[in-house]
């Protein structure tokens, strides 16, 4: 799925789309995905929420987490088990969560129960 697919889906939707969650596409580089996220935000006013990824990397090296227009979310862990912290603190970050300057917010990411098909 690329830029055209995302923007076409939104423009043909009969519903007013204001939020788009992009959780499945995490990679090292994709100009098409970066531009699609930027277009959704700038031209359609859509809040695009993306996962930072779970590779214990700097989120600024991951697409679409490094797109400034996106709201990048990293996983937190509130079960008392703390991941390594570069600043020496004890923050409830999921051990493998991608972190860094491109993360905008943390949200629960460990032992989350959800509906399953």
UniProtKB/TrEMBL annotation:
Key word Protease present: yes
Record GO biological process: proteolysis
GO-annotated cellular components: cytosol
Protease listed as a keyword: yes
UniProt-recorded Gene Ontology molecular function terms: serine-type endopeptidase activity; tripeptidyl-peptidase activity
Peptidase S8/S53 domain mapped to chain residues: 27-109
PANTHER family the record matches: PEPTIDASE S8, TRIPEPTIDYL-PEPTIDASE 2
Protein name: Proprotein convertase subtilisin/kexin type 9
Native source organism of the sequence: Tetrabaena socialis
């Amino acid at each position: 799925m690329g830029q055209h697919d995302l923007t076409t889906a939104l423009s043909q939707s009969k519903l007013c789309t204001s939020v788009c969650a992009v959780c499945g596409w995490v990679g090292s580089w994709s100009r098409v995905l970066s531009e699609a996220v930027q277009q959704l935000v700038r031209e359609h006013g859509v809040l695009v929420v993306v996962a930072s990824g779970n590779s214990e990397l700097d989120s600024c090296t991951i697409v679409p987490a490094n797109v400034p227009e996106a709201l990048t979310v990293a996983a937190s862990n509130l079960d008392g088990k703390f991941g390594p912290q570069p600043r020496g603190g004890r923050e409830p970050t999921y051990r493998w969560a991608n972190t860094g300057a491109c993360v905008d917010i943390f949200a629960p990411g460990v032992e989350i129960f959800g509906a399953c098909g």
